[in-house]
From TrEMBL:
<protein>
    <recommendedName>
        <fullName>DM2 domain-containing protein</fullName>
    </recommendedName>
</protein>
<dbReference type="InterPro" id="IPR019835">
    <property type="entry name" value="SWIB_domain"/>
</dbReference>
<dbReference type="Pfam" id="PF02201">
    <property type="entry name" value="SWIB"/>
</dbReference>
<dbReference type="InterPro" id="IPR003121">
    <property type="entry name" value="SWIB_MDM2_domain"/>
</dbReference>
<dbReference type="InterPro" id="IPR036885">
    <property type="entry name" value="SWIB_MDM2_dom_sf"/>
</dbReference>
<feature type="domain" description="DM2">
    <location>
        <begin position="53"/>
        <end position="130"/>
    </location>
</feature>
Length: 169
């Protein structure tokens, strides 16, 4: 979704040390980037990549992450994990089934004793954060004997088309 390269501010100055790219709906597919800057010495840089997850992925508030044993996920995954917690701990009101009784952990997270199930997504919005960027610290080395390429493995989740087709079988 976006890429930011931060070069040494002391070498390139406050107005020329950042290189930014942000994907828009009109952006064509690309398989790489090339950034060039003049220089005569090695340069430390930080590369930040924010991936374009579809559906969007979110990072959970630390308290909720501990409770649900997941650090990030889609909205659907997060709500499913919370619902599983509610069912496992029998927190759904047996009389008024749209209400959930908050145990001590949920009370400390949601700051209430009871929640209507339809209100959960709104409460969760305050507890989910954008995914963390991928951060790569790299040194651009000059000189003929220096390696010019570096490779990094980045795990990404993709839809499993076989699994999806089996669901409709």
């Amino acid at each position: 979704r976006s890429l930011v390269i931060e070069l040494d501010k002391d070498l390139y100055g406050p107005d020329n040390h950042l290189v930014e790219w942000h994907r828009t709906n009109a952006t064509a597919e690309t398989d790489g980037f090339q950034v060039r800057r003049l220089g005569d010495q090695n340069v430390k840089c930080t590369i930040l990549m924010i991936l374009d997850h579809s559906p969007p992925q979110y990072r959970l508030d630390a308290r909720l992450a501990r409770l649900l044993s997941i650090n990030n996920g889609t909205r659907q995954t997060i709500i499913q994990a919370l619902w599983q917690y509610i069912k496992t701990h029998k927190l759904q009101d047996p009389e008024e089934r749209e209400f959930i009784h908050c145990d001590a952990q949920l009370q400390s997270i949601f700051e209430c004793t009871r929640i209507r199930f339809p209100d959960l997504p709104g409460k969760l919005n305050k507890l989910i954060l954008p995914s963390e960027p991928i951060i790569i610290n790299h040194t651009i080395c000059l000189g003929a004997d220096q390696k010019k390429h570096a490779c990094y493995d980045i795990d990404v989740e993709v839809d499993d088309q076989v699994r999806d087709s089996m669901r409709t079988f």
